[in-house]
Design brief:
Pathway: Amino-acid biosynthesis; D-alanine biosynthesis; D-alanine from L-alanine: step 1/1. The chain is an alpha/beta fold. The chain is built from 13 helices and 19 strands. The protein is elongated and about 80 Å long. The structure holds pyridoxal-5'-phosphate. The site of pyridoxal-5'-phosphate (PLP) has 11 residues, from loops.
Length: about 400
């Protein structure tokens, strides 16, 4: 052991309890697992009972894949999708018997790890098919696989020519236990975009050229396009986490996240005071300004400063004024009675009394997906069950 690690462990032995450090937490992300479970149930109901997987890539869109998957698994979810093999490996302990599909497929050299953790590659190239076929031959038993066919997004998926090559020579798929055929919609949140129907028709055609297997097309927004899009398995991510399936329309899903940040200081400032970097906010009247422990390093975009978004406290919206700093933002709390907001209080910054994920996305010129997945590692993630025992 070198000197630095020995000093570190010596310090650790006398370190204060985790709770004491947590008491000083700067910002907390509360994640309602029951709302996620309820959202999956709502999607299944909208699809007339078709089963739903859960897409938990990117740490369940930043909300904690293991806790999210465990909660969904307890409610009967049997199929999970991740993007990377490492995500699948990390998820395995949380859902020991579920199917875990790896959207980015299998890379040369990773076949053994895929098998060891029981991960199912979602294969989208002929090279990966031969890799998996050879591994199956070496093991002397069929290996589970899903196939991704491209129906018009031109991102991942076997082309029509490649699907035809597989149809012409069934031995190419020898040793593959085909569990699922999928494709992905490029514009499902635009309900009138003709690409949706074109992709659906193409999917019907291509899947029939492959060996019979359950099919999956609909992401979150795809669920709302109608029965023709549901096939055998829904594949939502965003909607589980409360993101609206259609921009600008009422959101039928339950809100899932609330981000709140500690008040570091409350100041009453005279008129004509410049606040924060570059003095981008100047008070026009005496103002109460609260400095909050959250910044762009936590994924709160700099584009949301200067009165484009609202924090919230005690039912009152508090405009976020001035530039967003790396570790802090400033909110105008003048609307609250004097003394109501104090150092150490937690002010909502996303959800709760603040603007929600979709409103913030609009204000920042992005989509709710990016708001959630940007939320940083420094936030304290707290999973809870709003509805414990009552979801039945
Ligand atoms: C991310 C992803 C999904 C989930 O999409 P949402 O829009 O979040 O529901 C489904 N399928 C594939 C292939 C994906 O990459």
């Amino acid at each position: 052991m070198n000197q630095i690690t020995s000093i570190f462990s010596a310090t650790r032995r006398t370190a204060p309890a985790k709770e004491a450090v947590r008491a000083g937490v700067g910002a907390a992300l509360d994640i309602d697992l029951d709302a996620i479970v309820a959202n999956r149930r709502l999607l299944i109901a909208r699809a007339g009972g078709v089963d739903s997987a859960a897409v938990v890539k990117a740490d369940a869109y930043g909300l904690g894949a293991q806790a999210v998957a465990a909660a969904l698994s307890a409610d009967g979810c049997r199929n999970f999708f991740v993007a990377h093999i490492e995500e699948g490996v990390a998820l395995r302990a949380a859902v020991p018997t579920a199917s875990i599909f790896v959207l980015h497929g299998v890379a040369p050299g990773a076949e053994g790890a895929m098998c060891a953790y029981g991960l199912i590659p979602v294969i989208s190239t002929l090279a990966q098919i031969s890799l998996w076929r050879e591994r199956a031959a070496r093991r002397g038993k069929a290996l589970p696989a899903a196939l991704h066919v491209d129906t018009g997004m031109a991102r991942l998926g076997l082309s029509e020519v490649e699907v035809d090559a597989l149809a012409a020579d069934p031995s190419l798929l020898a040793g593959l236990d085909l569990r699922l055929v999928i494709s992905h919609l490029a514009a499902a949140e635009e309900k009138d975009n003709p690409s949706n129907e074109a992709q659906r028709e193409r999917f019907e055609i291509l899947r029939k050229r492959l060996p019979a297997a359950p099919a999956s097309l609909a992401n979150s927004s795809g669920v709302f396009l109608g029965a023709g899009y549901h096939f055998d398995l829904l594949r939502p991510g965003a909607a589980l986490y409360g993101i609206a399936p259609r921009v600008g329309e009422p959101n039928p899903l339950a809100p899932v996240v609330k981000l709140s940040a500690r008040v570091l200081r409350v100041d009453t400032l005279p008129a004509h005071t410049a606040v924060g970097y570059n003095g981008r906010h100047v008070t026009t009247a005496p103002s109460r300004i609260a400095t909050l422990s959250l910044g762009y390093a936590d994924g709160f975009f700099r584009a949301l400063g200067n009165a484009r978004a609202n924090a919230g406290f005690a039912g009152q919206k508090l405009p976020i004024v001035g530039n967003v700093s790396m570790d802090m933002i400033t909110a105008d709390a003048t609307a609250l009675p004097e003394g109501r907001l104090r150092e150490g209080d937690f002010v909502d910054v996303i959800g709760g009394d603040a603007d929600g994920v979709d409103a913030l996305a609009r204000a920042a010129g992005t989509i709710g997906y990016e708001i959630l997945t940007a939320l940083g590692a420094r936030l304290q993630r707290r999973h809870f069950s709003s509805n414990e025992g009552r979801l039945a």
